[in-house]
Design goal:
- 30% of the residues lie in helices and 16% in strands.
- By secondary structure, it is of the alpha+beta class.
- It has a 5-stranded antiparallel β-sheet with strand order 1-3-2-6-7, with helices on both faces. It has a 3-stranded antiparallel β-sheet with strand order 8-9-10.
- The longest helix has 23 residues, at 129-151.
- The chain starts with 5 loop residues before the first strand and ends with a strand.
Length: 372
């Protein structure tokens, strides 16, 4: 008997072939079967009263198309975190671990820690009990966090199981790890003995203030919480290659040298390439040059250009040259010129030349973009 959170696909999907390989979850185009599944979830939300309480803040949903042991294709659905304080709606897969269980250890220990906080608010700043209570709170909070992540026991395609502390290695997992759509969906499929075929995640509801999310659009799995988990859970599956790798190889070939002597190398960095290692799957000048010129020593990168900015970079071949060039940049002996392409629709004048004098800063809700 199939659970309530297993859903059949409509008859119209029988002519759609299953993908040969499972979705690479960090960069993908949704498979047609996922598009069908997502449309059914969106329809379900229209008649889901609890969603009315959440849609003003928005939430990520996900679908996983699966094949059952008897060869039937269907899908599972999930949402990140909880909706209206619940994580057990029958239409959606259950959580990896139910931390909202009111009689469970997590909730009870949280109450004990909250009681310590309440005691601290009642004490005078000079009270000798304060340090002891703060120390107890810190120890119990850290212990509870570790205990919680040990309760998240996730499976992979090899039939293995591991808790999140082991999955993240020597790092404490970020808060909320294991509560996103993709780990929930994969866990449910493995526990039911279903074969995962393809995955997609999409945003529903209002756009949040701290990131760009548009209702109905599809998004990759998050990296901070989900990447280590999914890298473990996808072991044993035939997963698509990262489509960015080929793009990165092509981009690396666009990094060209325009001048070289015994001390420096001058290169032309293409747009889309980082100067130094940073975001995953994004190529960077430092690593490409290290591969091409293994004899270079020292930091190499004297100055940087933003990822989306193309242009000239001066690289030092050794540590001594690096220090000399760095001093020149610090003392503003190096003059820089930037050229920008402007959209005329954003300007109040049709003049071809002019000066823009406006104070700018980092947009705290859309880093690293700038705002006036």
């Amino acid at each position: 008997m199939k659970p309530s959170y297993y859903h059949s696909l409509p008859q119209e999907t029988t002519k759609i072939s299953s993908p040969e390989r499972f979705t690479y979850p960090f960069c993908y185009e949704p498979h047609p079967l996922c598009l069908w599944a997502a449309s059914l979830v969106k329809d379900e939300l229209q008649n889901f009263p609890a969603w009315e309480q959440e849609k003003d803040s928005g939430k990520m949903f996900g679908v996983l198309v699966v094949e059952t042991p008897d060869g039937e294709r269907g899908f599972l659905a999930a949402y990140s975190g909880n909706i209206a304080g619940r994580n057990d709606y029958p239409y959606f897969v259950p959580p990896v671990y139910n931390l909202l269980n009111p009689s469970g250890y997590f909730i009870q220990e949280e109450k004990e820690i909250s009681a310590i906080n309440h005691k601290l608010t009642k004490l005078a700043p000079s009270d000798p009990l304060i340090n002891g209570l703060k120390g107890e709170r810190k120890l119990r909070s850290a212990a509870l966090q570790r205990w919680l992540f040990m309760q998240y026991q996730v499976f992979n395609g090899l039939g293995e199981k591991s808790d999140l502390l082991n999955v993240f290695g020597d790092k404490i997992p970020p808060g909320g790890s294991g509560e996103c759509c993709a780990p929930k969906l994969m866990q449910a499929a493995y526990q039911l003995g279903y074969k995962p075929l393809c995955l997609a995640e999409f945003w529903m509801g209002a756009t949040p203030k701290d990131e760009l999310r548009i209702e109905g659009n599809y998004y990759p799995a998050c990296r901070s919480k989900c990447k280590p988990i999914l890298e473990y859970m996808l072991q044993g599956l035939n997963v698509e290659e990262n489509p960015l790798l080929e793009r990165n190889r092509k981009m690396a070939s666009l990094l060209t040298s325009i001048y070289e002597d015994d001390a420096i190398l001058v290169v032309n960095k293409p747009s889309g390439m980082l100067a130094v290692p940073g975001k995953d799957d994004v190529p960077n000048v430092y690593e490409v040059i290290h591969e091409r010129y293994p004899s270079f020593t020292g930091p190499i990168i004297v100055h940087r250009l933003d990822m989306d900015t193309s242009g000239i970079m001066i690289l030092a071949k050794n540590d001594e040259v690096y220090k000399i060039l760095q001093r020149q940049f610090v003392s503003h002996e190096v003059h820089k010129h930037y050229v920008a392409l402007l959209d005329i629709r954003t300007m109040n004048t049709v003049e071809k030349e002019g000066v823009i004098r406006l104070p700018i800063c980092v947009n705290p809700y859309d880093r690293p973009r700038q705002i006036v």
